[in-house]
Please model this.
Amino acid sequence: DAMVIQNPRYQVTQFGKPVTLSCSQTLNHNVMYWYQQKSSQAPKLLFHYYDKDFNNEADTPDNFQSRRPNTSFCFLDIRSPGLGDAAMYLCATSRDGPHQPQHFGDGTRLSIL
Amino acid sequence: GESVGLHLPTLSVQEGDNSIINCAYSNSASDYFIWYKQESGKGPQFIIDIRSNMDKRQGQRVTVLLNKTVKHLSLQIAATQPGDSAVYFCADLGAGYQKVTFGTGTKLQVIP
Model:
């Protein structure tokens, strides 16, 4: 059974049109992460939540925001998607922090028209 | 900056042979290392991890070796199967760091 679920699996949006990607988890983990992964590249961390505490990576564009309304759900908002934002977006969780394995969802592939 | 990198972008192995995937890391303060497997169209899947106070750890058909002297990590897969075909990422966490850094990935192709 999937423990980290991302919806939708594929998302198409128009240039500049806001889009929201969703992630839910059944593991009751404290930490949730969002990664961006472009073709043939390693996942790149955008930000993470430790419980309700938001931690943004220094090089994450302001265009990317996140919300975590409760333990189970986390959202990635892209306010004005550009062509360079086309990528796979991966959500992951870990129980208490980066010193533990992360459990990934299968990602949302975002295309920009 | 600190980085984790892999020596080979693609590795082809005959089914039934053993596979060895190598990884070099540059942060001598790294204290936690993880291997992930990513199949096409899926998210990374945890395989095995090792902490810096160990030099070897074994799982089911997989072994991770850590050589802190030369800052080298390897993943050994015994009796490689077609289902092992994937991209393998090593990742490390430096002491005092708040995030895991992924290496560039090695694509493992299993030849039937």
Notes: Residues 48 and 59 of chain B are 7 Å apart (CA to CA). The mean pLDDT of chain B is 90. Chain B touches chain A at residues 32, 34, 36, 41-46, 49, 89, 93, 97-100, 102-105 (CB under 8 Å). DSSP finds no helices and eleven strands in chain B.
